[in-house]
Amino acid sequence: METRKEKLGSNHPDTLISIANLASTYRNQGRWEEAEKLEVEVMETSKEKLGSDHPDTLISIANLASTFWNQGRWEEAEKLDMEVMETSKERLGSDHPSTLTSMANLASTYRNQETRKEKLRSDHPDTLISMANLASTYRNQGRWEEAEKLEVEVIETSKEKLGSDHPDTLNSMANLASTYRNQGR
């Protein structure tokens, strides 16, 4: 890594890969502070040099979220996971493997939060979106019952908070219909 920094410069893509690899090694060893320091460096440099929506930048953000996740720093992990998911959806589409992975990461963060029930039961629009995204992940994995349960909850809350004719409510209904269709119902 130091050789690459010296020969190529701190901002060179190959140098960033070396730094990210070392951070990953630290993360796998449970050396959280060392991993975090390097991951922040890679993330900030990637944002500056490649842009916030570049795939390599999104990977660096997800890596930092993983380090936070492993430390039980759920809110910090959630914020980064949400950023990766939203940017991936915009840039790559909802069905892209990277987007689906980011949805699963966010779902995993929610699952491990002590306040999961409160967060998932909330009627905040962002929470409804996250629940719908998690349901989509389940649907794409063929986990029909889990998808259906979340989709029904999203529909009920959307109807209550937004109304039956709201586009988000209608979209949620279409998602549930897709789940039923995939089950042959």
Automatic annotation (TrEMBL):
Signal peptide: none
UniProt cross-references to InterPro entries, sorted A to Z: NLR-like, TPR-like_helical_dom_sf
Superkingdom of origin: Eukaryota
Annotated segments matching region Disordered: 159-185
UniProt xrefs under Pfam families: TPR_10, TPR_12
UniProt biased composition (Polar residues): 169-185
SUPFAM superfamilies: TPR-like
Feature: compositional bias, Basic and acidic residues: 159-168
Stated name of the protein: Kinesin light chain
Lineage start: Eukaryota, Fungi, Dikarya, Ascomycota, Pezizomycotina
